[in-house]
Design goal:
This protein is mostly helical and 180 residues long. The chain has two domains: 83 residues, Orthogonal Bundle (Arc Repressor Mutant, subunit A); 81 residues. It is 66% helix and 6% strand. It contains seven helices and two strands. It has a two-stranded antiparallel sheet with strand order 1-2. A hairpin with a 6-residue loop joins strand 1 and strand 2. Helix 1 packs across helix 4. The longest helix has 31 residues.
């Protein structure tokens, strides 16, 4: 799936939950999808304009002067289902930590260990975030039809973080034995 189609998918998907302003679309992508999806905020408004021109989204005046609310049309819902059903095209991975570890000989085991320790702390923060999201979802009453699927994404994030944490511990143990 081309990058533009991926952006269309993200925007159409958040609008499938509820009509919202462009700013709210941006916030939803950042706050709700941000644990597993990133989107260039500079693409959101042009995408909304294109989706509106293509009849996939309708644009209505918002409550504030000059603001607009976007809503999925029937054609937009059909396009969303088409995009959701299309096979995922994996993007090439970009992992700055692994790049540095791979060339760790240049900076030495202590510097690599420091990078891994930083990552370990970040992962612990991610786990705390996933736990907080799980607690929040358990008390939320809105969007009951979406919650089981949202819980699956939180679970996947938690599992990935636990695996990363286990790797950090293993890597730190290995690095202790590297010659200095």
């Amino acid at each position: 799936m081309a990058r533009a189609s991926q952006t269309d998918l993200a925007v159409l998907a958040v609008l499938s939950v509820a009509p919202m302003s462009g700013y709210s679309v941006r916030e939803a992508i950042r706050d709700q999808l941000g644990h597993f999806w990133s989107e260039s905020f500079g693409q959101i408004y042009p995408t909304l304009s294109t989706l509106t021109a293509d009849g996939l989204v309708s644009k209505h005046p918002g409550e504030r002067s000059g603001s607009s609310v976007f809503e999925l049309t029937a054609a937009g819902r059909d396009r969303l289902l088409e995009l959701l059903s299309a096979p995922e095209v994996a993007a090439p991975p970009r992992n700055g930590l692994m790049l540095r570890v791979f060339f760790g000989h240049a900076i030495g085991p202590d510097a690599v260990a420091a990078l891994v320790e930083q990552t370990r702390e970040q992962v612990r923060g991610q786990l705390a975030t996933f736990d907080a999201i799980s607690r929040m979802m358990a008390t939320e009453l809105d969007h009951a039809e979406h919650r089981p699927y949202w819980a699956l994404t939180v679970s996947a994030g938690r599992h990935s973080a636990l695996a990363a944490l286990a790797w950090c511990e293993e890597a730190l143990e290995s690095l202790r034995g590297f010659p200095r």
